[in-house]
Amino acid sequence: MDIKKGDTIELTIEKVVYGGRGLAHLNNMAIFVANTAPGDRVTAKVAKVKKNFAEARVLEVLETSPNRIISPCPYSDYCGGCTWQFIEYEKQLEYKYAFVEDLLNHIGKATNFQINHTLPSAQIFGYRNKMEFSFSDKRWLLPEEKDKKMDDKNFALGLHVPGTFDKIIDIDGCLLQKEEGNEILREVKRFVKDSGIPAYGLKTHQGFWRYLMLRHSHAFNEWMVNIVTSQERDAPVQALASVLRDGLKGIVSIVNNINTRKGGTAIGERERILAGERNIRDKIGAFIFEISANSFFQTNTPLSQRLYQTVKDFASLTGKETVLDLYCGIGTVSIFLAPVASRIIGMDISNNAIADARRNCQLNSIDNCEFLCGDVRMLLSQYSVKLDLLVTDPPRVGMQRQVIDQVLRLLPDRIIYISCNPATLARDIALLKERYKLEEVQPIDLFPHTYHIESVARLERV
Ligand SMILES: C[S@@+](CC[C@H](N)C(=O)[O-])C[C@H]1O[C@@H](n2cnc3c(N)ncnc32)[C@H](O)[C@@H]1O
């Protein structure tokens, strides 16, 4: 029997695959089903059929997996903020370990390496130090809201339905951030709804309010609020800043990023300070970091200390080494390694991050780091230095082919690859295989309730 789009089928979920979906088989066809766990027996409607696989949507769970629990979040069946709250945390860790191991074996073609137990997150709720909420001129309705009479269907401030750019669920709180963050979210929502100024339409590209980004400092319990708008207009953003400053405690920085471009990003072409400082400070281990609104900072602060400690342990530096820190961000890795290295060179494409990195060195009295701003592809091609260690921490897409080629030209003795995407980590390890052998991997669960997993990999030159 051929499987066709629109068919209703019965499936037993065998495992979850990287990307978070459940996998089942019917008539030798692999079928992926979101929001399922191994052991679930479900009826599902086929949504897409390709040559070798199909995708289906759950209609009913007939028998539940023993790994299921009740999600505490009311939006969890629909929201893309996190998609695994219905799976026990211990099982999440097990599945993620299997992702890393499988991808390194099958895509990375790596053999005889050590993979350590996943370091869990001590906090599995309220762990995120940064959240980005989108405004929309059209609220995506939850099933129970569809037949309700509502006078605010033309407004939403919240998170995306998974895999969509324009479907925003209006939410009153997210369990991944601290409750004070949810108070700021609700206060901003009240103000913006009453402002009479429209929210930005993700399809129409009309409207003013675009994003609300919140950052929390774990060490100092302080908040940064970044209001992203489509134009520069003083009165409404200043009024919102006053309401926040007067009504809520702990906000030390309120900034306004102005993004006039159509592309969906919270990074503006211009940034204005509305109240307090331009940056927020946090602490990891013994070091203090100043972070500006648009710079990258690991989102799970307590566990990032374990991440950087793992890098330091894998590096085994003696104080004599020259280290290249690719995709260095605000200088976290460089500063962690600086006391045990001779010289560190950091590279990042973001001006803001490089300015933060230089300031952070001063703040921590570190004087053996230098930072270059630019695309690593260009910077590396002009670079020639004898390297003992290369630390690389690229975005999800991994390293570009030209960057790998430059690494193979520079030939550092050791590479430590920090990755938030085991699929691109595995691909890049395969590309480095001729000259580097994967020796050890440490998965770290920086992202509970999502399928995402951070890994630190140690490769030695052969
Ligand atoms: C995952 S973050 C790593 C930051 C840092 N290592 C840390 O732990 O905080 C990736 C960084 O890569 C930078 N980046 C992205 N594409 C880049 C490119 N083509 N060249 C240089 N840096 C890039 C981003 O600005 C970001 O700071």
General description of the model:
With 462 residues, this protein is an alpha/beta fold. The protein has three domains: 8-63, Beta Barrel (OB fold (Dihydrolipoamide Acetyltransferase, E2P)); 90-123 and 300-461, Vaccinia Virus protein VP39 (Rossmann fold), CATH 3.40.50; 130-280, OB fold (Dihydrolipoamide Acetyltransferase, E2P) (Beta Barrel). Helix content is 24%, strand content 31%. It has an eight-stranded mixed β-sheet with strand order 7-22-23-21-20-17-18-19, sandwiched between helices. Strands 10-9-8-11-12-13-14 form a seven-stranded mixed β-sheet. The mean pLDDT is 95. The structure holds S-adenosylmethionine.
The CATH superfamily of the largest domain appears as Vaccinia Virus protein VP39
Annotation field: number of helices: 9
- How many β strands by DSSP? 23
CATH topology of the largest domain: Rossmann fold
Helix content: 10-25%
* Gross morphology: globular
Amount of beta strand: 25-35%
Bound molecules: S-adenosylmethionine
Low-confidence stretches: none
Q: How many structural units, i.e. domains?
A: 3
How is this fold's topology laid out?
Layout: E1 8-12, E2 15-16, E3 22-26, E4 29-33, E5 41-49, E6 53-63, H1 89-106, E7 114-115, E8 130-136, E9 156-160, E10 168-170, H2 179-195, E11 209-217, E12 222-229, H3 234-247, E13 251-258, E14 270-276, E15 279-284, E16 287-292, H4 301-315, E17 322-326, H5 332-337, E18 343-348, H6 351-363, E19 369-373, H7 376-381, E20 389-392, H8 401-410, E21 414-419, H9 422-432, E22 436-444, E23 454-461
Parallel strand pairs: 4-6, 7-22, 12-13, 17-18, 17-20, 18-19, 20-21
Antiparallel strand pairs: 1-5, 2-3, 3-4, 5-6, 8-9, 8-11, 9-10, 11-12, 13-14, 15-16, 21-23, 22-23
Helix pairs in contact: 1-9, 2-3
The chain binds S-adenosylmethionine.
S-adenosylmethionine binds next to helix 5 and strand 18.
